[in-house]
Every structure is written in structure tokens, then in C-alpha cells.
Amino acid sequence: MRRLDAPVVLSRIAVAVALLSSAGCGGKHYLNQYEFSGKTLALVFIDPPEPELLHGWYNIDVGDNAITTVVNAGAKVAKEVVARRATARLDSATRRVNVATRMAERTTERASRYLGTRSVATADGADYVLEIQMRSFGIDARSNSATYLYTRAEAVLLDRHTGREIWSEDVRGSNRLTPYVVGTGNAPSAIFTAGTLHTVTVADFEEALDQLVTLTSNLITNELREKLRDVRDK
User: Fold this and answer.
1) Of the chain's two ends, which shows fewer C-beta atoms within 10 Å, N or C?
2) Among the listed residues 85, 73, 88, 16, the one whose alpha carbon sits nearest the alpha carbon of residue 191
3) Alpha-carbon separation of residue 81 from 129, 141, 160, 172, 194 (angstroms)
4) Measuring CA to CA, which residue among 227, 229, 114, 123 is closest to residue 168?
5) pLDDT digits (tens, 9 = 90+) for 198-229
6) How far is residue 35's CA from residue 27's CA, in Å, rounded to a whole number?
């Protein structure tokens, strides 16, 4: 059997899945009722919660081969144990990475460019405020074939003077953290996933978080750009 290389920093792994969804708060907006050119924009970032670990129930099919059943069950348990330990390393990386600062740097510049606004450091005195709340993020270990870093965030553009919501969007992003593998009856995928996840270091998680922040920022600003295009093309 071919030996799997340990995962390195996410830039070298296949950074695959980027999911974007609108969950009811990205539909109606009032961008056409405001003039943004020459006005000021500030970004407010609400501190994220602690990283979470997503895992599933182990529904093991009991077949004719009792040994295979035991191996499959053991592999899935091992994957969850490794994922829980990896969550502690992710938590350490989170304390080293200033998510708020990096999100502000990546988001304010693009949002201001599309809106025509001038970015300012604080919300006091700004004409508009872009509020970003990272509702959840962490490790998604529900798949036996790979493990992912995921994030869910909400962005809201506010008229600071009235508090009115001008536009909002709910975004979800996901980066694959370990190689995607397909196991066999004798060597389940979960075994390889656990083995590769075990080698992800705190430094790897730091870079992964940085890329996840960039992904989330891009999802938010891309959606804002699309909505502005719709308004300005009419």
C-alpha cells in the first residue's frame, strides 16, 4: 500500500471546498437607497467563540466479517480521539493569531473599494459600519475520508447614524485540512485521516486560520460586490 505523506501547511494541501450559502439573511437589501461615494466605513469584528469539534455518530454495519466490523469501529473512535487532541492545538493557534485584525485588514480594503468609501479605524464618527460576527469555527471530523477547518460568519452593513441594516449576508467556508483518502475493507479511511490529522502542528493551524480568515473575507466581499453590481446595472 502506498504510504501517505503527512499534511503540510494548507497552501501545499489541496485547499478545496469553499461553500457559500444564503440562509435567509442575504436576500433583501437597501443598497440602492444609499450613496456611499466619499463617505467613511469602519469595520467592527465581534470576537469569535471557542473552536468547536464536529463529529458524527458511529453507525457501524455489522456484516458477516466480525473482524472488519471491529476494525471499522476502532478506526472511527481513533479518528475522534485524534480530532479532540487537534482541537487543543487549534485553540493554541487561535490565541496566537489576531483574527480580528486580519479580518479587518482583508475585508475593509475590498469593501471600501467596491462601495467607494474611505475606511476609518473606529466606528465613532463613521458614516457606515460593516459588522462581522464569526458565529462558529473549528474542526469538522464527520467525514471518514478527510478532516476540514470550517467557519460560519455573518456580515451586516449598517447606517451608523440610524442603525438601519442596509445589507447582510451569512457565509460558510471550509478548507480541507488532511488529504482525501479512500480506504479498503482492511484499512478504513478513518485510520489514514486520524494518522494525518495527528501530524498537524500548532504552526500549521496558524497558517490554516490565516487562510480561513482570507476565505471568509473573500466570501463576504464577493457577495457585497455582486449585490452592488445588481443595483448599479439597473
Assistant:
1) C
2) 73
3) 42, 10, 46, 26, 8
4) 227
5) 777 888 888 888 888 888 899 999 999 999 99
6) 20
With contact defined as beta carbons under 8 Å apart, do 180 and 197 qualify?
no
Closest CA to 99 of 205, 175, 224, 26: 205
Q: Are 31 and 232 in contact (CB under 8 A)?
A: no
Secondary structure element (H or E) that encloses residue 224, with its range? helix 202-232
The answer for residues whose C-beta is within 8 angstroms of residue 101's C-beta and 6 or more apart is none
Which helix (H) or strand (E) covers residue 113, if one does? Answer: helix 99-115
Q: Hunting for cell 459588522 — which residue is that?
A: 131
d(CA 86, CA 202): 9
Strand 165-176 to strand 148-159: parallel, antiparallel, or no bridges (unpaired)?
antiparallel
Strands 148-159 and 128-140, by their bridges, are antiparallel
- Extract the C-alpha cell encoding 41: 466605513
Distance, CA of 55 to CA of 53 (rounded, Å) = 6
pLDDT tens by residue, 94-109: 888 887 788 888 899 9
Interior CA angle at 138 toward 104 and 43, to 5°? 15
Please say if the pLDDT value at position 70 is more than 50. Answer: no
- In whole angstroms, what is the distance from residue 131 CA to residue 114 CA? 16
Provide the whole-model pTM: 0.69
pLDDT at 144 (0 to 100): 67
